[in-house]
Amino acid sequence: MNAVALEQYIHFAYIAAIVLFILALKWLSSPVSARRGVLAGEIAAGLAVVATLCNPEVIAYKWIIISLIIGAGIGIPLGMVKITAVPQRTALSHAFGALSAAMIGIAEYYEGLDHLTRFGMGEIALEVIIGSLTFTGSLIAAGKLQEILPQRPIVYKYQNIVSLSVLAAALILAVALVVHPQQTTLFVAMVIVALIFGVMLVTPIGGADMPTVISLLNSYAGFSAALLGFVLNSKMLIVAGALDGSSGFILSVIMCRAMNRSFTNVLFGAFGTVQTTVTKTEARPIRSASAEEAAQILDAARKVVIIPGYGMAVAQAQHKLRELHDILTKRGVEVSFAIHPVAGRMPGHMNVLLAEADVPYDRLIEMDEINPEFSRTDVALVIGANDVVNPAARFTKGSPISGMPILNAYEARTVMVIKRSMSPGFAGIDNDLYYLDKTLMLFGDAKAFVGSLIKELNAVAAGV
Amino acid sequence: MPADFISNLYVFVLAGFVGFELIKRVSPLLHTPLMSLTNALDAIVVVAAIIITGRQGTPLTTTLGAIAIAASFSNMVGGFLITDRMVRMFKSGGAKRP
């Protein structure tokens, strides 16, 4: 086969891969066809890798094979992590993706040093800046999610000005490089400054803002790959990067909307640090109940909506909740789960945890669909969620979470809240829901309390 | 502006548009697997890393390329693995559970 024909075949393989990428995302739209989507993606990736190995430009295979083996050695354990570790694994994979894009951009710079055009230099500089900041930013996010680093926002005075100056410095270095592409010192300085900016971008962001941040980093990682496609003139990389980038971008928009906040506010707001001190401490009366009382109310209910939040993930209560769901369903109670878009630490976090615990996915209902149901709900059981059910978001003007869409738990006939203590949630705001006459506070560890609810319900069942 | 850039821009805009239309349709149920799948697809940058490493430029570019291969290939393998594990967990209530 001559070289021209071979090159054409490689392009055909890449085009087939692009089609399969698109089909993969299309099939992922529903749980019924999702596995087919994964398979399409795998075939696409395999096709593209094999085609590339046939590229006549590739003359030495030793380091390729060694690195592929190392990559597989890292990737397989990362693909086998516990489902509870998925948020930090995802952040780590954004870091790897961005690292790879940045490394290729840097290599491309050094290889093209003698014949770089100004335009080409500009593309490389932008690509390497985004790749580098996404790399360190994602590492910090992963560290926070793994709780190696503190989850609370780390803030100091004039932080935003300092951070933005660092970003500006990176951009100025990029402009200087466009003027003098041969100045390798400038290039190294630019990479270092971009790496530092990535750290500064994510350290001030608190744990509860992680769904937005992880989506934004997803989008950066995607766009850095697309930019790399521009640098290398590879249409396949542009398509893959654009798909990944737009996916991350849409998810970030959904997350921001679900908190009624803007990107700027998430990135520069350091929410939660300002308000923690203003919490009212006046003691308001609450009603608490024992597991036995709560079980009797649940048993008498016809419709129960369970509202899980990050606290459920922390307490690992999802398997117990599934048992509760099974027992109540068996006793003729209609049970569903209300999923707020920002519940947990990444988009879709609650769904994956509950699906792993074998809760059927048609019982996991998103916010807009479940909200009209609360007025005909007998019991809303809140477990590990706080701000997403705080009526202050709807009714208290000037509240820090004012305008945030919430789950209308307060409309249910009875509200039960499983909580360790009366301490306020992430936003540091008192939750009016806890003081309603119809609210019962169930104090205790989420997993243990649901366990005792199950025991009580079984006792009731045995008594019948 | 180079001619390549313009044709690449066409591809980018069209792919971004297709992505937007596709992702909008993904059920919020599957947003976590969506993120891990797009991550695995994005790992296709491994092809660029393979070329950099395989054409044997300087030791520096070969090293950078090798790191890039390991990083992106780990995303590819791990991303597909975990996505498949996650989507397998989503079972409908209609199906009988053991």
How does this structure look, described?
- The complex is a heterodimer of chains A (464) and B (98).
- Chain A has 464 residues and is of the alpha/beta class.
- Chain A folds into 2 domains: 60-269, no CATH class; 278-463, TPP-binding domain (Rossmann fold).
- In chain A, 59% of the residues lie in helices and 7% in strands.
- Chain A contains 17 helices and 6 strands.
- Chain A has helices at 3-27, 34-53, 62-79, 86-111, 118-145, 159-179, 184-202, 210-232, 235-259, 263-269, 291-300, 310-315, 318-330, 349-356, 367-370, 392-395, 446-463; strands at 303-308, 334-339, 364-366, 379-383, 414-419, 439-443.
- Chain A has a 6-stranded parallel beta sheet.
- In chain A, helix 16 links the parallel strand 4 (379-383) and strand 5.
- In chain A, helix 1 runs antiparallel to helix 2, helix 5 runs parallel beside helix 7 (184-202) and helix 11 (291-300) packs across helix 17 (446-463).
- Chain A is elongated.
- With 98 residues, chain B is an all-alpha fold.
- In chain B, helix 2 packs antiparallel against helix 4 (59-89) and helix 3 (46-54) runs antiparallel to helix 4 (59-89).
- Chain B is flat.
- Chain B has a domain at 29-89.
- The longest helix of chain B has 31 residues, at 59-89.
- Chain B contains 4 helices and no strands.
- At the A-B interface, helix 1, helix 2, helix 3, helix 4 and helix 8 of A face helix 1, helix 2, helix 3 and helix 4 of B.
